[in-house]
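[job 4471] stage=fold_predict status=RUNNING
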Amino acid sequence: MKQIFFFLILLLTGSGFMNPAKAQNCDGQRYFNSNYWAYDSSTVVYSNDSMTMDIYQPAGDTATKRKVILMIHGGNFYQGTSKDPFIYTMCQLFVQKGYVTASINYPLITPTQILNGALADSVTAYPIIAQSISEGKAAVRYLKKNAASLGIDTSWIVIGGESSGALIADHVAYLKSNAGVSPLLDSAFAAVGGIEGNSGNPGYSSKVKAILNYGGGLLDLNMLTALDNEPIYTAQGDSDHNIPFNCGLLFSAYTDYTACGGGAMQPILNGLGIANKMLMFDSLEFSPWADSTMAQTGDTNHIVLYQVEAQSTLFLYQLDCPTFTGIREVSNVNVNLYPNPASTQVYIRSDAVIESVEVIDRLGRLIRTQMTTGYQARIDLSALSSGIYIAKINLKDNSGSIVRSFVVE
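[job 4471] inference complete, writing structure tokens
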């Protein structure tokens, strides 16, 4: 029992085996808890073609080297704005935790181009995609160029996006050479100044800290090389019809070119030793967390959005605090977990409504998340090896968590 207790203390404090000098930065406060409930916003021009960026900063914040999250909306390159509901919701989430957040507009094609099949043919689509990636890289450079006035840390800029916006973000992060770039795509990049693009703010690096990949992917898996080391969080439905979870034609086979989503990227990332985390939604299609306006009232979407928000927050926090788990226990709720030890399953009963149960191993890794409703849950243990585990029982409406340790025989 001493071993279980010590493991539990490590999880609850978030200190793990970290250098004590860093522990003060891993206390679950800034960048994990929501401490800023108001923000200041501004809109700036960040590119040579007058594209704009919305910037959100925690109101009253006096820190001068703050972490940044740059978001890019979806819309298949012909619709959407920087104020897309899902993107705006994520910007709000992160600014409440102390990040500076930003969301960009980028050039969209016209309805006439859509009718003429501009996205269907790689000859006409690749220049559109290359220009969008150029804009994304210019946006990263803008933030670095203006770091002093924005009070941000140039070494800690995370880029993210949804769907086509995530595809842009993935290429901004991982496209560092011409590896995996076909001759046709290479010519499209050449027209916009190469893979770094000529959209503005030259002289600054477009390198980012990590990626939030909400339903995105890469045009070619060979673009992932030994030059890449940026951790990536992916959330995607395995039946995504827009950007395939595995490799396939884009936009419901509407096109003659392919992309590879999170399912296909993960083995390559693992092979290259790139840290990654993926939340796959079984049998769900495009953007199962969206739209975020519905997510506030629709039970299913609310659960999906909550999962994405919670895991994204933890993923980002663990970039600097890898042993932190974010478990914070409430004490006024009675919860029973039995049998313990267990072999094939455990039951959980609570006198408060349970929203989800997360199973965490002794290394602090999330093994599985099970959504539930009501006052009880049954967890299947048949796929788990023998050892000590933690059940993090999350209560409805984000009202707190209860932690129980158990042993699998």
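[job 4471] summary: Residues 1-24, 291-302 have pLDDT under 50 and may be disordered.
[job 4471] exit 0
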